[in-house]
Amino acid sequence: PVDRSPEIQEARLKLPILAEEQVIMEAIKENPVVVLCGETGSGKTTQVPQFLYEAGYGSENDIIGITEPRRVAAIAMSQRVSLEMNLPQNVVSYQIRYEGNVSTETKIKFMTDGVLLKEIQKDFLLSRYRVIIIDEAHERSVYTDILIGLLSRIVPLRQKKGSPLKLIIMSATLRIEDFTENKKLFRTAPPVIKVDARQFPVTVHFNKRTPQDDYAGECFRKVCKIHRMLPSGGILVFLTGQAEVHSLCRRLRKMFPYRGKQGSKDEKDEDAQEAKALRAFKKSKPKKKVNLPKISLDNYSALPMDEGDEDREAGGDDDEEADRSDFDLDLEDAGSDEDKESDSSLPLYVLPLYSLLAPEKQAKVFRPSPSGTRLCVVATNVAETSLTIPGIKYVVDCGKVKKRFYDKITGVSSFRVDWTSQASADQRAGRAGRTDPGHCYRLYSSAVFSDFEQFSQPEITRRPVEDLVLQMKDLNIEKVVNFPFPTPPSTDALVAAEELLIALGALQEPPKTGRLRVMQSAKLSCPITPLGRTMASFPVAPRYAKMLALGKQHDCLSYVITIVAAMTVRELFEELNRPALNDEEKVILTGKKARVLQMQKIWAGQGPAQKLGDLMVMLGAVGACEYSGLTPTFCDRNGLRFKAMMEIRRLRGQLTTTVNSLCPGVSIFLDSKMQPPTESQVHYLRQIVMSGFGDHIARRIQPEELLDEKWRNGYKTPLLEDPVFIHPNSSLFRQLPDFVVFQEILETTKMYMKGVSSIEPEWIP
Ligand code: ADP
Ligand code: MG
């Protein structure tokens, strides 16, 4: 029996899903798999676990598990359900990558989908669970898709074993056919229960014009207008990332200051704390040896960590971007008379909301805003379906979303801000009609909207899959093509992944039939090798995992860890070839360029070390940075991006912990005084790089072969018709070695190789 407070009970009764409790529980009793879909806010996430608990599912040693694609949701929902049920947090708990409050008492466990995937690797049948709820299935995160595929097989296995597992797939009302009408996934289509939500009408207003760049500024102006002119009701703004969210919050707080007792103190405290932390950080003396906390290997998944993407920065120039926009705002605030003084309207109670925001700050959006204020939540798309904020009447939608893009050829990924899909935009609009009729202001024209794609593509179809294939093989799923994906990746993507993994030695080579031909089907069912298993436990893509697996030899491991960390963090160096704003900046830039060039020459080493090329420069830069204590000043002086260097430090720590736990005899530690590699180590390091990038080899076109001028100083690669080049900024530009291995090709004015080091011709098979 659950003992709820009268207020909670009253609020619950208003939720449409409560009227369906019997129908839902009946369906779950009768069917192993049930699909439940309903508008955001209808009560799926908070109520279904309670229905199950009250029906006796979380009794004795059984747990009710709920997966969320986002950490925010896992934490917030566990807290909410614990509160509603009047049960402590060690009973209704959460587990995300690094933290959680799960105990032996836990009956209801909210977790990120990556956490459950990791549990499947340990206990394929998930014997501790009686029910698994896959929540937010419409988000189509790679993990969610794979979990549904795996669970479609685990459910019948549990049935056979006589301890049935129930699977509930919950989704917003969006394209559920991928789950229900996919015979490979569920031979008998699971029943679909639709929950009708009382959705009030939302009037959608399009902009006549679509702003070119400054959608954040447009958001600001729109919120000001709404607040000054329209009747009471909360405002929810959708932006694309953390920096934008903070920047708009600051601007709005300045415009409509809230001087209430608690809120302003909070805000001031926040600012003061941040400033203090920053000062402390800037002052902190470098420690001689960096002691990193031990991270248990179980706590992180070896799959790519896409969760929280919207909190990452697009492109390479992120921190400058953030700083610059703040600077711009101040200028603008001082300049335009509209913004000169703070406004005397009602105070605006402004709250940020994004994935990586601290949970106690996230929780604020659910509390009533102080009386005499209007609530304004500035959010990334976490507020689209994962969290329902009460009292929203106005939605301001910039129409954009931050996404990860992958180059089909090079596999290189980047974060870019792009238009969202029509389905997402409609979800965002729907947030305005939860409690009353509402309004949605779209900061783009209806013509632009009609060009949006209808639905966002499932993530799994948009990226290379060698990492997923390796993880599945590690789960002993040999025929990945036969895996019941809700939406499968293309066969081309799967073949490419398997070929690469064979080349890396992670999978066994298929037997050759007849005239040395390998059948396509054989190519797609190669078993994993012991090396592959080791590689699967590193939290980096297979190419880099291969380098790490080989690094043990010849005492190279700490160098390999550093090189891998530097290679996987994008853009170590600041872009100095940007146009200067004025003469003064021009002088500064020129001076800096000269200095950076000089430093890079030093980092590139002397004698044989130079053969490691760009990777030696990376090694030298990381070494120098750590030696000097990794300060923003040092980075700025030497043209390094502070944020990238911090990320490298973090990743080096993670990789070091992983290596130590995989090979207990090795015992690597991070030394801030890394000696340069010896001549023989350089030799092996070049070979190790080649082991991961054996297909990224280029041969210099010799002068006597030169038939076409465009090939002068060019290199020939196996796959491209056209020449590729070594960039003038590369430490190998003056040498132009005959054979090189490269990390990627980037097309700008020419096709340039990045991350180049030289190799010996006799190494090439
Ligand atoms: P769904 O999963 O169907 O989108 P939820 O179960 O998340 O719906 O939300 C149901 C209701 O509970 C919503 O009206 C929402 O505002 C409310 N709610 C959810 N979390 C909280 C919270 N932490 N505080 C107050 N209300 C909440
Ligand atoms: Mg939900």
TrEMBL record:
Residues 300-344 are annotated as: Disordered. Keywords: ATP-binding, Helicase, Hydrolase, Nucleotide-binding. Residues 306-341 have a biased composition (Acidic residues). Residues 25-192 form the Helicase ATP-binding domain. The keyword Cell wall biogenesis/degradation does not apply. GO terms for biological process: maturation of SSU-rRNA from tricistronic rRNA transcript (SSU-rRNA, 5.8S rRNA, LSU-rRNA). One of its GO terms (molecular function) is ATP binding. One of its GO terms (cellular component) is nucleolus. Residues 222-476 form the Helicase C-terminal domain. It comes from the Eukaryota. This is Activating signal cointegrator 1 complex subunit 3. It comes from Eleutherodactylus coqui (Puerto Rican coqui). The chain holds residues 236 to 1000 of 1151 of the full protein.
